[in-house]
Amino acid sequence: MNEDPVVGESLAPKDAELLAAHVAGDPEAFGVLVARHRDRLWAVALRTTSDPEDAADGLQEAMISAFRNAASFRGDAAVTTWLHRIVVNACLDRLRRKAARPAIALPDQEGDAGQNVLADPRDPLGARELRIEIERALGELSTDQRAAIVLVDIEGYSIEEAAQVLECPAGTVKSRCARGRAKLAERLVSVRNPDGPTTVRYTSGEGGEGA
Questions:
Q1: Distances 92 to 116, 145, 174 between C-alpha atoms, Å
Q2: Which residue intervals of the chain are DSSP H helices?
Q3: What are the residues whose beta carbons fall under 8 Å from the beta carbon of 107, sequence distance 6 or more?
Q4: Based on the structure, what is the number of domains in the chain?
Q5: Which region among 16-20, 115-119, 172-176 has the lowest average model confidence (pLDDT)?
Q6: What is residue 207's DSSP assignment?
Q7: Range of the domain at 42
Q8: I need a surface site. Which of 25, 146, 152, 202 has the fewest CB within 10 A?
Q9: Inter-residue contact 210 to 178 (CB < 8 Å)
């Protein structure tokens, strides 16, 4: 995936350059790097945990870890992949440490982060109902399946890129996505849009790897 801004940013330092500058002692470089990718990192954390408090804590832990361990970056993947890997791992660790499943945070206004998740814009009320049900259903998946679905079907990563983030074989990501989609489809089979199709379809951009 593209990691650096391209429009009007030809003179801006690349992500890898910012990370190297941070390692070399530049006090501003890491802040610039995080600000550049903050929104997407937050979206991944929120959808992985399904809880704003857990997402905030997980993201904070991840950024502290990235700050302290920047020298371990070897350049074998994009800096954004490295950052997403740290965020996802921190969030999954938080979920696995919890004794009970967290409550599912539901969006309370149309501007919330969850609004773009597989909703049908033709019917605002139906879309909101579907969105809420999908958020709930995501929270019921295993942490591994949820992380794979979030990266591939929501954030738009390819199977190979998601495998890099999750540090597992591409086949494992495909399997987790397939099992997660099957569970989501079963969970959402009763959700109907009066003017739309009677089933919910999921696409990943990986032909033949959809619902």
A1: 22, 11, 19
A2: 15-23, 29-49, 52-68, 79-97, 124-140, 143-149, 159-166, 170-187
A3: 113, 114, 115, 131, 132, 135
A4: 2
A5: 115-119
A6: T
A7: 13-105
A8: 25
A9: no
Amino acid at 171: G
Global pTM?
A: 0.65
Cβ–Cβ < 8 Å for 125, 96: no
Q: Note the pLDDT tens digit of each residue in 106-155.
A: 444 344 443 334 434 444 555 666 667 777 888 888 889 999 999 998 88
Higher pLDDT, residue 42 or 99: 42
- What's the CATH number where 97 sits? 1.10.1740.10
96 and 137 co-located in one domain: no
DSSP-assigned letter for residue 163: H
